[in-house]
Each structure stands twice: as C-alpha cells, then as structure tokens.
Amino acid sequence: MNATAATLRIALVGNPNSGKTALFNRLTGSQQKVANYAGVTVERKEGRFVAPSGRVMQLLDLPGAYSLDAASPDEAITRDICEGRYPGEAVPDLIVCVADATNLRLHLRFVLEVKRLGRPLVLALNMMDAARKRGIRIDVGALEKALGIPVVETVAVQRGGAAALIERLDASVAPGPASVSAPVDSGAAATEANLHEQVRSMLAAAVTMPRATSAIDDAVDRVVLHPVGGLAILAVVMFLIFQAVFTWAAPVQDVITNGVTDLGVWVGGLLQSMPLLHSLVTDGLFAGLGTVLAFLPQILILFLFILMLEESGYLPRAAFLLDRMMFAAGLTGRSFIPLLSSFACAIPGIMATRSIQDPRDRLTTILVAPLMTCSARLPVYTLLIAAFIPRRTVLGLFNLQGVVLFVLYFAGVVSALAVAWVIKRMRSDKSEHALLMELPSYRLPNPRDVAIGLWERAKIFLRRVTGIILSLTVLLWFLSSFPAPPEGATQPAIDYSFAGVIGHWMTHVFAPIGFNWQICVALIPGLAAREVAVASLATVYAMSAADDAATAQLGATIASQWSLATALSLLAWYVFAPQCMSTLAVIRRETNSWRNVWISAGYLFGLAYLASLLTYQIARALT
Amino acid sequence: MRLSELKKGASAVVREVEDAHAADPIARRLRELGFVSGEPVRVVASGPIGGDPLLVQIGYTRFALRRAEAERVLLMAEDAA
Fold first, then answer.
1. Which of A105, A156, A209, A449 could form a disulfide with A23 if both were Cys (CB 3.0 to 4.6 A apart)?
2. CA of A249, closest CA in chain B: separation in Å?
3. Domain, as residue range, for A68
C-alpha cells in the first residue's frame, strides 16, 4: 500500500469571518456530517472529498478562533484538537489555516500562533476576489518565504475557487503514524507584541493595501450605523421579515396540516378493523406529526432571513445598535435577533442563539426566549378576548380588545427583561461579559452556503426534535384515551380517561387561580402546543373543533360558563406557561442539558401560576 | 488618555492595554486582536444610546467595544503620536 492511498485527515482552522465554513462547503459539498462535540454544545462539522489522485480527504471544520489562548468553549476545542489532545479526536495529519486576504493584519497573527504548534500547515488566502477588487496586492512568494509554510489563494464562493488548495493537499504526503510533537515554545520571546511585530514586518514585505478599509463598507456603515437612520433601517428590516414569515408561511402551513390530516385519515381507513390502533395512528401519531410539521415553514423562513443577515454581515451591526439597551437588562446586543424571532416561534429563536459567543449570555437568552409572545398563543388569545372583552372604545381612540392584546405582548417583553435582569443578579460568576465584536466586511450572501445552512437547521429540527415530540404526543394520546368511557356514558370520553382523572385532581391546585376542571383537562393535551388547547377545550365541551363555526360556538359556551376573572387568569397563564413541548425539546438539544429544561419549565410554570393567581384574585375582588 | 475618551472620528496611537484586574481575559483578548503599542486606532462610530458601544478601527478590522472595554486601552499623548 502506498502513501497516496491513505486517507488524509485535515483540520480547517481560522479566525471568525475568514470564510472558513464557505471554503469547507466548497470542498465537501453535501458530503457533511454535523453533530455536537461530546458533552458540549459546540457544533462539530465533518466532511470528505476525493482528490483527483483518488485519495480520500477527511475534513474537520474547527470552530473559528481569534487565538489558541482560548476565551470560549469553541476556542478551547479548536486549541485541543490542533494540539492533538482532544479525547476521542485523532490528531490531524495537516492543518489548513484560512485567512481573509483583506484582513491579514489580524489573521496572520493567528497563522503564526498555529505555526508554533509545529504541525504540517498550509495557509489558504481566502477571498482573493475581494482583495483584488480593492486593489490589494499580495506577493505570495514573499509571504511563503516569510512564513516558511505553503501559501495558496482561494475564492471559496466561486466554482473551482479551491482548485489550488486541493492540488496542494493532494501533493502533500501523509506523514507516518501521527506523532504529537511538542509545540515549539519560544518562551518569553513569543510575547503578544512580538507576534504583532512579526505580522507588521510580513505585511511590509509582501502586501500592498491601497486603503485600510473597503470604501463600500465605510459608505454603508455611515448609513446603517447612524444613531437615527440605523435604528429606522433595523425596524424596517425586522418588519419586512415578520411580514414575510406570516404571509408566506400561512398557506404552506395549511397545505402541510391538511396533507398530514388527509394522510392520517387514509391510513386510518386501512386500520378501520382495529379501533385502538386506528385511534393511536390518527389521534396520536398523525395529530402530533401535523402539529410539529406545521411549525416547519415558519422556522425555515425565519432561518432563511437570519442566515442571510448573518452571511451579509448585517447581524453584528444590528447587535451594535442595540447592545446598550440589551446590556442594561443583562443581555447582549446579539440577543436581540433571537428574541425578536421568538415572537414568531421560540424554536428558531433558541436555535439562533448560537451566534452569541458568551455562554452565559446565550443561556440567559435561551431561558427568556419562551416569554416572547409566539404566534401559537394567538389562537388562544383570540378565542378568550373575543369571548370576554367587549368591543368598545377606550380613551376615545383605542379598541379595548386591541389594548388587551397589546398588554399581553407587553407583559411578555417586560417579564423577559425582568427575568434576564434577575438571572444576572443571581449568577455567582460576576466577571465582566465581553462584547469585543468584530464587524466584518459586507458580503452578498452566497445562495449555496445559505441553502446548506438551512438544510442543516431543518434536519436538526426534524431529526432531534421530532423524536421527543412524537413520543410525548403518543403519551398524551394514551392519557386522554384510556380508560375508555363506560357503557351509557353521558360525558365526553376524555372525562373518563386518565387525563380527566388528572384534570379533576388538578382542580385542587388550580382552583385558587380560577381554573375549572374543563380547563385543567384541556391543559394536559395542550402541553403539546399552545394552540392545541383550543381544540382540546372544544373536545372537553363535547363539540367538534374542526371549523371556525365550532370555535365561535366554543366562545359562546365559555362566555356563558366562565367568569371574567377566570378568562383573564387563563390569559395571564398563557403569557408565561411553557405549554410547548417543541420549545422544551429544542432547549434540551441546544443546551445539551435536561437541567436547563427543568429550570426553564419550572420557572415558567411558577411565573404562570403567580400571574394567574394575582390576576384572578384581583379581578374577582373588583368584579 | 484612554480609548473611551477619544471623540468620534478622531485617531490616536495605542500605548498599551491595561489589565482591569489580575489576569484580565478582556485585556488579553484586546492585545490579541491587535491593541498593542504603536498601533493606530480610530473611533468610527458610536452606539445610538449613550454613545455606547464604540466602533473602533484597528489595523484592517473594525471592532465594537463597550466603553468599559475601551477604557482598558491607553493612548499615547498627542504630541508623541
């Protein structure tokens, strides 16, 4: 067996914003595996491609790092793998360091740091197209000589833009059994100033920069970061995104919901002879699947926009504009977009917190995201407001129903800020949270990179989240269907089931907040997703909730049977209660910890109970 | 003078980064990002509320720094620059 036949293990490293992931996408295409490193929430991306010689190249895309002197869990992983001491990861045969050719003053310092490890190293000068456009001239030969490592030019966003790198990798001979050489430690001589001094002399020898920054970036930033104009632009961008989410997602959601229902009916038809299995498949599996899949269009559309904002370089600008405001509440500017996305759905919001570097800021953002009023609460709000709040004008201007809806949204935002503030106070680690955020050059989002990012998100949601949700849906179906009602039963079937029993038992706890047993029973299947509560209330009141007429009928029924205090209390409950398994499942997946799921569910239920108790008791005293 | 006191649009040269406390990770990161002696800096923009954070150009890169972070960066006296 000759050396060229062996697989070459390559690690891609580089500063954030070096275009490293775009280069990884260019090299590996769809041959990627995305997972997490064991025990942490740092994403592990692996891919492979076959070089022209037939040799298999196995690539690991390491997290972006400014320095090997790690300041975050991401950077620690990059450091440990490069140094060959990450448990369970093989030492890479070769390291490819990716640097942005327009930003070498910063990126070459990291190259020098990686070089000190003494591992085989190739430098990929990426974004050479942008460098040429800006008139930046790089003498590759001189740079190779100064660095003492091979240097190749790449344009990750162009077809064939990595050809020189592939050729270079193909020509490199796989070393024998990988040995971890001790890092070349130059001791006291390798101070920070020393590294920067070396970079300066290399730039002087090999690089001509007509201008330190791109003229386009300067012009765009003058508008986008303007104290007034910048905020106005941000508001317009966010407004357009929300418009798109709600106008584009709704029709697709209907198609998916109807499709899944029809499929369920068809499959159910085949199982007509086995009533139990029939009920499990149609009421359990397909109903659950429909609920989960109905989220997908919203999630994907939101993610499409988040990815484009991220790729274009606008996301850190938005964070810059809002940092002061968010910091006052114990968050960071980077929390804003995830929290705003949570107004549509907390799931993409929580997944988008990956762009928050500080793990403490990220966890706080994840914990408060469910307090943003997501679109699934609207059916519940609409039902209750229409049934209990009179349509009348207050202060000669506002519709009372609209005012109540606004108060519900506002309560969510205020409590999110308050909870974030409390978390900040309670935290034992009081060390300063850094912003230190790079504002990268503006770039046109590359459709291929956006598509790959979107596909990854969809896979995570479908694969990781659906399993948990489906098993819980089946459990809820079981609780609501067993035991079957006795002969000659007069009440709806659910009343005789375990859910009914639990619901009746729950009234002991929920009586102080004004919930009758019907509400308690409906809350159990309503754990699947908030809007399911409307359907389950209809079930409890023994009516079919398949159409708008039934919903109107339900509104009339509850208006005649509930007190106003009970209705207000239920509204307050829905501002806080974590009645959404998908959100809890995503928190589990994104924080890799059941503990955070319990904390989040626990405090949300606590707040919900407290808010409902206050609302009910005050409303009862006043009415 | 400190970077946090530099006016919008003004340039200066970095003298050193001061540790706010022993083994200050933020000061260390600032040095890694290029805030080292002799490096020119410029305040490009500032946030809409209270002029915080600052947008600072160093080398070919722009960083957003909160005022508390920029306070760690000491600048050379104007005549020395």
1. A156
2. 34
3. 3-212
Quote the pLDDT of residue A482: 78
> Amino acid identity of B65?
L
**Minimum Cα–Cα distance from A223: chain B residue:** B45
Q: Give the up-direction half-sphere exposure of residue B33: CA atoms within 13 A in the CB hemisphere.
A: 26
Which residues of chain A does B39 touch, with a Cβ-Cβ cutoff of 8 Å? 196
A606 domain-assigned? yes
Which of A75, A102, A106, A315 is best to mutate for the B interface (most B CBs within 10 A)?
A: A106
Give the C-alpha distances (Å, rounded to integers) separating A292 from A191, A267, B29: 54, 19, 43
Q: For residue B16, what are the β-bridge partners?
A: B74
CB contact under 8 A, A221 and B44: yes
* B23 part of contact set with chain A, CB < 8 Å: no
Which domains can be identified in chain B, with CATH numbers?
3-75 (2.30.30.90)
pLDDT at A296 over 90: no
pLDDT at A142: 95
Residue A410 lies in a domain: no
Is residue A497 a part of any domain in this protein?
A: yes
Instruction: pLDDT band for A484, please (50, 70, 90 cuts).
Output: confident
Chain B residues in contact with A209 by the CB 8 A cut-off are 60
ipTM of this complex prediction, to 2 decimal places: 0.94
CA pseudo-torsion sign A575, A576, A579, A583:
positive
For A371-528, strand residue ranges (E) read 393-394, 398-399, 437-438
Question: What is the pLDDT, as a whole number, of residue B41?
Answer: 95
pTM attached to this predicted model: 0.84
Domain end position, chosen among A163, A195, A212: A212
The structural domain count of chain A equals 2
Residue A172 in any domain: the answer is yes
Contact assessment for residue B64 and residue A324, using Cβ atoms and an 8 Å cutoff = no
**Statement: residue A112 has pLDDT above 90:** yes
